[in-house]
Amino acid sequence: MPADSHHKDARLAPAVARAGWGGTGPAPTVPFRSFDRRRAWTGTDPLPPWLLIGAVLLLDLSLAAAAGVAISSMPDTEGRPAPALIALATSVCAATAGAMGAYGHAALFGTRRASAHLVAGLAIAIGALMLAAQAFGSTDAIPVEPALLWFAVGAPLLLVGRAATSIALRAAAERTRQRAVLVGDGPQAARFVGAMQARQDRSLRLLGLVDDRPPDAVDAERGHSGVPRIGSLQTLCAMIRRGEVDQVIFTVPWASEERLSRLQATFADYPVDLRLAPDLAAYHGGPEDGLEVGRLRLLRLADRPMRGWAGAAKTVEDYLLALGALAVAAVPMALIALAVRLDSPGPVLFRQRRTGFNNKDFFVFKFRTMYHELADHEVRRQVEEGDPRVTRVGAVLRRTSLDELPQIFNVLRGEMSFIGPRPHAPGTRAGDTLFEDVTDRYPARHRVKPGLTGLAQVRGYRGRTDTEEKLLLRLDSDLEYIEKWSLWLDFVILVRTLLAVARMQNAH
């Protein structure tokens, strides 16, 4: 860690101490580089929710399709469903069940409501196809008797499959449950914990509890909820930064609006799901109001960016783009490596520390563009136009952004995305100010993996960041990308990046 970061930690120590504040005013921002990175929680990390959901979805699709294929293969059956019709029906079944909540993380652990949604999805899918066949005059496509037989065979299969899935997930609880920490002790937390225990919820693992109030305000209630205390808000923030917490659940009275607002503001820039526990003394919510925990409903306050299916789609996109780019750029990269080696003595690649997802540092790969003896690993001075430290080949590579091509390997290593906020080196300054000191929102860009290119770059916010205004323009685009991410947005950024490279616009 650069020396500047250590000095920053010392300056912000009072703010850290106030992390468990109970006073008025805006919530203090807990500094991101002030935490001990040693793991406090030594259990096994859970599997990503999207992986569990994908496996259950694949099983459900297979069982629904198997029932259709079995009906189609029966002898002396008129109007057997065609393979295309079976595929369509199974897709509609999964989509309908998913829309009703059958694939929420908690629903995978065997709630009767999720099973009912799954059976309802199959009934709706078969019924919709029958109505469509009637409307288009193709009554032979799926007659009533085969349709009813399909449902009679498929529904029990889906129920048995979901029961087996829930048993397997419960048996592998160490790898399937989401890790949660409660914030706020007192009657509200006690009622919530008691309700979870009564309903035997198996989708969450409560690691402990922290309280956001000063010690003199909680001494009388210490241990009220029966959940072990793990420290202060600072401790919880450190655990999130180490990747040890998946959900933060606020167990405070709903009437404490100011307190809830402060808590939400504190964790807004962390890659963690924020939930509000139901006020069990007066709560009467419906299915549309939140997320199911057993039969409780956790109200959704904020989600991690690109979670669930979005995270799965982003991961697939990254690897497909990286492999495709590597196939196309392999020969040019070999030629560039040869040119770098012939132009000046020194290694072909340059490794530099950058800050990535969840504020964790990693080494980014680049083609060397400076003379080896003048390399600036700590980014003490940003490169300027005509910089004498840059080699002849390096100037061309930087102008065309081709020096970034080796970062394809960072994507394949899982350290970067193909598209996302560009990674910055720790200790980089905008003028005389460290990036993280310019604005409290700067760490929010680390809620997702950094990228080879991003929205800020295609908007022209590239090159030197020598003023605070330039950094703020970049940051605004980065945060907009995180909030509005979609596959279409990534496609647009990719096309605009290729056009910018073709025009040989200035690189960052």
UniProtKB/TrEMBL annotation:
The chain crosses the membrane at residues 47-72, 84-104, 116-136, 148-169, 319-340. It is a multi-pass membrane protein. Residues 314-502 form the Bacterial sugar transferase domain. Signal peptide: none annotated. InterPro entries: Bact_transf (IPR003362), EPS_sugar_tfrase (IPR017475). Keywords: Exopolysaccharide synthesis, Membrane, Transferase, Transmembrane, Transmembrane helix. Belongs to the bacterial sugar transferase family. It comes from Craurococcus roseus. This is Undecaprenyl-phosphate glucose phosphotransferase.
